[in-house]
Design brief:
This protein is of the alpha/beta class. The chain is built from ten helices and eight strands. The model has no long low-confidence stretch (mean pLDDT 97).
């Protein structure tokens, strides 16, 4: 599977924070039913590894990866658990190098020309832009896309249904990330119908703008 091409088709790669691994599978199933079969399970909680493992084993139609990966040890653990991709909030040379050597799709956070050039040295064609709203949003991304022809971004932070279409209709955007379709509160309260509806709303916007 070409993970990055799948990102472009799906349009939205939700950032999912799971406090209890028992919620991983019902969350993943609700997302798939809502039309968003991709999830970035963050390593912000102790439940991350078990959650990735559960989704990888029980929801094969879900493209599951690990987010907030800050070192190579986390990346290795995530892949061992079944993660199909790695997302990092910033650029860590060791983690990026390990992922590239092992053919694991990785999107490190890059918000400066220097960070982008470091990513390009590894042949990366897609990077995360986080937090997008703080670092200038689409205006900054447009400026960065000028010297880095062909590079695609996954902006995360400040993206929601109100501006999703604007991002999706920009040629240098591969997909967008964010937690709004899968709120942590909804997960913890077992409101999986709400998650399905939120994902369906985001999917509708993707279909209208990239269908």
């Amino acid at each position: 599977m070409d993970v990055l091409s799948e990102f472009a088709k799906i349009g939205v790669v939700p950032v999912v924070v799971l406090d209890d691994a028992k919620d991983a599978v019902p969350t993943a199933r609700a997302m798939v039913e809502g039309g968003i079969p991709a999830m970035e399970i963050t390593f912000r909680t102790a439940a991350a590894a078990d959650s990735i493992r559960a989704v990888a084993q029980e929801v094969p139609e879900m493209l599951v990866g690990a987010g907030t990966v800050v070192n190579v040890e986390q990346a290795k653990l995530a892949v061992e658990c079944g993660a199909k991709f790695i997302v990092a909030p910033g650029y860590d040379e060791e983690t990026v190098a390990w992922c590239c050597e092992n053919n694991i799709p990785v999107t490190p956070g890059c918000v400066t020309p220097t960070e982008i050039m470091m990513a390009l040295k590894h042949g990366l064609k897609v990077v995360k832009f986080f937090p997008a709203s703080v670092y200038g949003g689409l205006k900054a991304l447009k400026a960065l896309s000028g010297p880095f022809v062909g590079l695609k971004f996954i902006p995360t932070g400040g993206v929601n249904n109100d501006n999703l279409a604007e991002f999706l209709n920009t040629p240098f955007i591969q997909a967008v990330g964010g937690s709004w379709p899968v709120p942590r509160k909804a997960i913890n309260e077992g409101k999986f119908d709400e998650i399905r509806e939120l994902c369906a709303a985001a999917h509708k916007i993707v279909a209208e703008n990239r269908g």
